Each structure stands twice: as structure tokens, then as C-alpha cells.
Amino acid sequence: MSSDVRFTDFKSDAQPTWCPGCGDFGTINGMMKALAETGNSPDETFIVAGIGCSGKIGTYMRSYALHGVHGRALPVGAGVKLANPDIEVMVAGGDGDGYSIGAGHFVHAVRRNVDMTYVVMDNRIYGLTKGQASPTSREDFETSTTPEGPQQPPVNPLALAFAASGTFIAQSFSTDAQRHAEIVKQAVEHDGFGFVNVFSPCVTFNDVDTYDYFRDSIVDLADTDHDPTNYEDARSRILDPGTEYQGVLYRDDDSVPYEQSHGVDANMADIPDGAPEDAMDLVREFY
Hints:
Layout: H1 24-37, E1 45-49, E2 64-67, H2 73-83, E3 88-94, H3 95-101, H4 103-112, E4 117-122, H5 157-163, E5 168-173, H6 177-189, E6 194-199, H7 211-217, E7 218-220, H8 231-238, E8 244-251, H9 258-261, H10 277-286
Parallel strand pairs: 1-2, 1-3, 3-4, 4-6, 5-6, 7-8
Antiparallel strand pairs: 5-8
Helix pairs in contact: 1-6, 3-4
């Protein structure tokens, strides 16, 4: 950890190819600010991303990075963290990548509570594939492939995380720069799996869940008497279908990361010469 790290240290020379006005610009800025403010440096950080508009986010950040396959970013991130507990792991994805094909990995990553951060850019649409309904799209959201709407209730990612015994569950708005960075920073500092669902508007394909909509609708928990450590209070907010919350909805201050509970504390890259003798005994037994 270093106190001399700056936000700009995490910027790569690659220019994002996102549409002008995309909410992902604000999301990535908050991620970089949070990493810098927690003292992490680019050479101590690993960014993993899946498929979708968020997929190339590691290209736009200067750090170790991997652009994985659809829905599989979380197991890669967990593997990196368990192989080297000293590295800061941040996984980035979208609502399609995380809550559709990656939903199974999401639930199990939450319950394992590996000490890493998961930032999901939720624009309630499949943007990269040109505007299909996503798991978080409204039930009546009309698209070219769902002209009468999906006719299914949207997934509540906060409720999924809560049901899977999540220890840090938060939501932010990408254009609320200072607040967004502050929330991601808290997720990074959390001992365990820090999950942040980010309202990140798609200006090209979603003309319903817009910047103006979120500005008018969001209720910031910092302006309420919400206690994120109170389980019942958190459940009430998370299951509230009519309010778009920003802030930390739930935080378990007694969280014990997977690495700590399972005694994973050594860098697995530091492998001594030669195979362990007990491993060789097992090989001899079968061969």
C-alpha cells in the first residue's frame, strides 16, 4: 500500500470506445479514485472483466488485467485472490454479464465471501449487442426483441446478494462522482466480498432509465436514518420495490473473509523447487 498513489496513475493510454455520455465513464473514474484513495497501486491491483460494454475496462486502466469470457469474471477474480492474497482484486461487469449467464457464479461468489470487490454497471439493457432487454429491464420495457416488454419481473441484484449472505451490499450512481467513489472505496476496504451495483445509464439504447430519471428518483441513504449494520433495516430497504437507493444498504462488520477462515495467507506463486514428498507418494501409489 502506498499513500503516494494518484487517481491518474490508474489511467492507461487506451481511449475508451464507449458512446459519448455513457455512464461507464463515471463508473471507471470512481473505481480508479477508490483504488488510489485506499492506497493501492497499479502493480498491486488486478482487474477482471467479462463481456459487454464493461468488458474492456481493464484495457482502460493501468494494472494487471484479464478480459474473460461471458459471465465468468468472478471465478477468475476469486482464483487470483486466493493465489495471491496480497493483491487487490476488482471485478467489473454489466447487468447481463453478472445477473444472467453469470448469475450462478454471482451467488456463490457472494456466499464464499472472498475479499475482493465486484462493481456492476447496471444500465438495464444489453448495450453492446444493440439494445435487447437485460435481467434488470423493466417488465414493460419495449425493445426490438421484446416489442411488448420482457413480461417478467426484473431481477433484484441486491436481494440476490442478501439472500446469499452477502456481507457488503451497496448501490451507487455513476454520475454522482464523489458519492460513487466513496461507496466503491468502502467496498474495497471491506473485509470480504464488496458488491456495488452501479446505476450507469446507457444513452444510446435506454431512453427510460436515464440520467434525469435517476437524478429525480434516487434516495441517498446518507440522508436517512438507515443503519447498514441492522439486518432488518437492510432487508426492508433491499426489498423495497418502489425506491432507487444509493449508499451502503448492508454491511456486516464481523465479516470474516474466505482467505482468513480457510487459512489462505501465502502467495501460491512462491513455489519451492521440487514437488512435495507427500504429492510424490500419491503419484507412486497410482503409477
